[in-house]
Amino acid sequence: MSIVSTFCKKGGVGKTTFIAFMGHYYATLGKKVLIISVDDQNSIFKCFGVEGKIFERNDDYLEFLLAGHVELGDILIEARENLYLIKTLNTDKLSLKLTLERNQEKAIKKMISEYATFFDYIFIDFPPSSSRLSEVLLDMSDDILIVVGLDSLGLGGFVNTIQYFIDNDLNMDNIKYIVPNGYSKNRRAPKISLDILAEQAKEFTPKAYVLPALQEKSIIKNLQNEGISPFDVTKLSNYDQTQKDMLETDLKSLFSNIYFE
Q: Which of 98, 105, 186, 240 has CB atoms 3.0–4.6 Å from 132's, for a disulfide?
């Protein structure tokens, strides 16, 4: 079992979309996958068209499990076959509780270890903001992927992320992959940003592997609006179907470069 996190101190770089696609990919291979959203926007639910589940009940959030009010299975929300999601109510309050009550950190570690007996992979989706909750879960992660937008703000987010790890004494060796996102062969800026990122990664995270850049594709937004994953078996218009199939092929090729412990 691997605990895998996608992280970046810059919002809007596509880390939630990436972890949703990756989680579903492994689920289609027959692996049991759990994605924990510790971003209280719970955007991961929209990627699978199950955002209605966020507010369907008010007693199935992560916090209720940590408080001992519900059992492990009570907060699992099935998004696809072999793929389950967990939602968070209030990240800031949970982080404050972690800071003030040290036993809460033990509760989170116990929760993760218990879920590990049921799932092959536990993926964690983070907000870009700093919090004690992020520190604890990043520290528990076996593999961390840093998703970086290919523009000046994205590169700044990468540097801020590295500084965040240093400031909080997090193990940089757990950063296994850098995921460049938003590449376009027809635009000069992403190409320059990719070259700069490669140099920065060599300097700051020499043990991390820079993955092939994810292409900027309009089909991703179209699928998200419909709550469809590239790995769903569904029939779209001819153009969208072609674009979806190409995206699925590209993602499979990308994920073939990733190995989790």
A: 98
Instruction: Please give the backbone phi and psi of residue 203, each rounded to the nearest 5 degrees, phi first.
Output: -80, -45
* Alpha carbon distance 113, 116 (integer Å): 5
Residue closest to 115 by CA, chosen among 80, 64, 152, 74: 74
Helix intervals (H) in 55-186: 62-66, 91-100, 102-115, 132-140, 152-167
Structural domains in the chain (count)? 1
260 found inside a domain? no
Residue 62, by phi and psi: left (phi above 0), alpha (psi -120 to 50) or beta? alpha
* Domain contains 132: yes
Q: Are 243 and 217 in contact (CB under 8 A)?
A: yes
Please state, as a whole number, how many other Cβ atoms lie within 10 Å of the Cβ of residue 61.
22
Residue from 231, 196, 234 nearest 213 by CA: 196
In a 3-state reduction of DSSP, which class is residue 241? helix
In the numeric block, which tokens belong to residue 94? Answer: 């949970």
The domain that contains 167 carries what CATH number? 3.40.50.300
Range of the structural domain that residue 246 is part of? 2-255
pLDDT in tens for each of the 261 residues of the chain? Answer: 799 999 999 998 999 999 999 999 999 999 999 999 999 999 999 999 999 999 999 999 999 998 889 999 999 999 999 999 999 998 888 888 877 777 888 889 999 999 999 999 999 999 888 888 899 999 999 999 999 999 999 999 999 999 999 999 999 999 999 999 999 888 899 999 999 999 999 999 999 999 999 988 889 999 999 999 999 999 899 989 999 999 999 999 999 999 987
